## 1
Amino acid sequence: DADVTQTPRNRITKTGKRIMLECSQTKGHDRMYWYRQDPGLGLRLIYYSFDVKDINKGEISDGYSVSRQAQAKFSLSLESAIPNQTALYFCATSDSGLAEETQYFGPGTRLLVL
Amino acid sequence: AQSVTQPDIHITVSEGASLELRCNYSYGATPYLFWYVQSPGQGLQLLLKYFSGDTLVQGIKGFEAEFKRSQSSFNLRKPSVHWSDAAEYFCAVGPPSGDMRFGAGTRLTVKP
């Protein structure tokens, strides 16, 4: 089984709808991240969480919210989806206990907003 | 502010030829540097990382990268490219716990 899983893998929704993307990990890492990937722009950080009670905004948090339901689960919500939120979304995790802390990525969720 | 520039959007090399992908960064302190690879339809896989010490870093799949502080560069190299190396490559600068910045990516095509 994959260490970092994302559901759904693909999603089509309409403008104005609320949707949630979910991320689960079995790596036992304390830190989790949400990124979006757009062609020509690389990955940009949306939100990150150092533990269940610690949520931080990233570079592009407007229009998004997150919930850290447990150490292993981190969800990203689009309260009212808009077409420019069409992108590939990645969840990542890292272990703060390691001297060379490194982020590990899930397989991605491809979102299309019509 | 920290940032990463990958000057080459797309590179084509022949199978068996050598490869160098360029990465330049801007960072206020000693940087944490990473190279990730993304195969079609896949997530990002870590190739290698630099935190400190030896400036020549070895990674998986035969890749290496050299940190050059004077040039603010962290170029990725491979002596002989295989067809399976065709993918998109991303350079990133840390810290890994939070505001890590990625380059726009370099797409590698391998000719038979």
## 2
Amino acid sequence: QSALTQPASVSGSPGQSITISCTGTSSDVGGYNYVSWYQHHPGKAPKLMISEVTNRPSGISNRFSGSKSGNTAYLTISGLQAEDEADYYCSSYTSRNTPVFGGGTKLTVL
Amino acid sequence: EVKLVESGGGLVQPGGSLRLSCAASGFSFSSYWMSWVRQAPGKGLEWVANIKQDGSEKYYVDSVKGRFTISRDNARNSLYLQMNSLRADDTAVYYCARDRSWYSDWGQGTLVTVSS
């Protein structure tokens, strides 16, 4: 049950766009369309931002979008805002009938 | 409004036991898989265990197999995690979450500290 691979940190200036990658294998990210993304501010409950690779839950800004190519999924945040600064985690269903999370990416808004 | 409230965390010695609870409201609890997810200090999120709607299927991360048991009481809209033989590396905030192959709703978490 190895964690999915995410960059430890990314940064961008307000108004810019950033993309966070999430790399797995054909047994998880590449094999299923059950990739999801979470925003986590320290001390708070994680918040679902994207489900099933591309679906944005009600109430989530359209500045957040998801995609996938092969064994890698992506979260793109456009028009960066100060409140976007947080930790972001991807998750995927796996062939073991269990989920796995990525190691997390710290987003800094400069 | 969906609400998940965890309780039962605290300080426990290595080798000890603790039972976490999660009270659910605002949705049809018996219709959903449920999961426990934890975050150790300075670390990322880690899925711990999940349980099917009727409790007939349960899955665990390898590191807790044989030590932790997930269960549920649909009549009480409650999820549980019985944690035995606790180790220092089980120290974490434990979250319960509604599991739809993604986690649409999370509780605020309960802190478990394993230390002598």
## 3
Amino acid sequence: AQSVTQPDIHITVSEGASLELRCNYSYGATPYLFWYVQSPGQGLQLLLKYFSGDTLVQGIKGFEAEFKRSQSSFNLRKPSVHWSDAAEYFCAGGFTGGGNKLTFGTGTQLKVEL
Amino acid sequence: EAGVAQSPRYKIIEKRQSVAFWCNPISGHATLYWYQQILGQGPKLLIQFQNNGVVDDSQLPKDRFSAERLKGVDSTLKIQPAKLEDSAVYLCASSLGRSGSYEQYFGPGTRLTVT
């Protein structure tokens, strides 16, 4: 069965430090993958997406993610975290022929220490 | 471009009462989704529409939940009667629904509390 796993429930980083949030997927076919961010009381905002082609994708707010087929991973990175990045981050995936459906991970709560 | 609109933003009801949520997707988006997000979890798909037809409602508790998208635009999700375990955020999302356009755009959600 298709699945998306986010191994870290909570992560705390200091402002200005680098960030990496992990996401692993399990799909038989090549997946398309997304990262979303959710601030308290808000809906999900799309940060970036991977469909095919270049495995390093750039998103909004200075985020990037790298698709690594050999590791079944799609980790989210940011070189320098700002206090406003504190939020919950969700990785989601689907696959061509899967009916435009997404499977979401359980989320990683990011705390930023000043 | 206007985003996905949802109302109400918050709703508190007692168990066994009924409640309805409304969603207006991004203009031109053929596919509409309703998700349930329980605190501490990722969104779980309840129902997916393509225009005004149901594509997938396998996770919808049909004994108490219903949804419609009559004219292929707005949608309503109803719960009747509500249970305590229905307390969650209900998210609506939309997408173009065409091959190669898989990203979904989300509304702000409706936070439902059942007491």
